[in-house]
Amino acid sequence: MIGWVTVALYLIAAAICAAVASRERRQARDGWRFWAGVALAMLALGINKQLDLQSLFTQVMRDMSLRLGWFAERRVLQLAFILAVAAGGLILAMIAMRRLPVLQRNMRLAALGVCLVYTYVIIRAASFHHIDRFINSAILGARWNWVLEIGGIGIVAVGALRVLLARDRARV
């Protein structure tokens, strides 16, 4: 059930971000590209969640490593994968901060949420067993994977809603 709820939350966040992008574009504001990108990211993550693409990726890599004979070295390869993803994410963040030096507060909030969710998805795809044990453990009855993923989606949605509500209050 939580999987369906998470997909719905991704789609809701995507719709809110798309509404912000549309309004920003109509009002000739520069932030519309950012919000359109976040809307597309949330949509892509929702599709990924529904189709469980990270599990498919993990299984394909596991099968390929067995077939090619490097399954015994999988831990080193998993670590290299996570480090490469982290380096790529860091480079993208630096490019974004350089290109968008004056990100509005709500944009920074949404970017943080997207980073949180993408980090969760990538680490989940790498499938380190000790990481799996951690994200499947619970805090106050909620599993960490729910907290990380749904929390990231919520952060994105809050950032976008704050933009929508601020614009609505400004018109009143």
Could you characterize the architecture of this molecule?
This is Multisubunit Na+/H+ antiporter MnhB subunit. It comes from Sphingomonas endophytica. The chain crosses the membrane at residues 6-22, 34-51, 76-97, 109-126, 146-165. Keywords: Membrane, Transmembrane, Transmembrane helix. It is a single chain. The protein is mainly α. It has one domain (2-171). Helix content is 84%, strand content 2%. The chain has helices at 2-26, 32-51, 53-68, 74-99, 105-126, 129-135, 144-171, and strands at 138-139, 142-143. It has a two-stranded antiparallel sheet. The longest helix has 28 residues, at 144-171. It is globular and about 60 Å long. The termini are far apart. The model has no long low-confidence stretch (mean pLDDT 80).
What would you report as the Rg, rounded to the nearest angstrom? 18 Å
Give the SSE order as H and E letters: HHHHHHEEH
The major pleated sheet works out as: 2 strands, antiparallel
The pLDDT mean sits at 80
Structural class of the secondary structure composition?
mainly alpha
Count of folded domains: 1
According to DSSP, the number of beta strands is 2
Quaternary assembly:
single chain
Terminal CA distance reads 40 Å
Transmembrane segments: 6-22, 34-51, 76-97, 109-126, 146-165
Keywords: Membrane, Transmembrane, Transmembrane helix
Protein name: Multisubunit Na+/H+ antiporter MnhB subunit
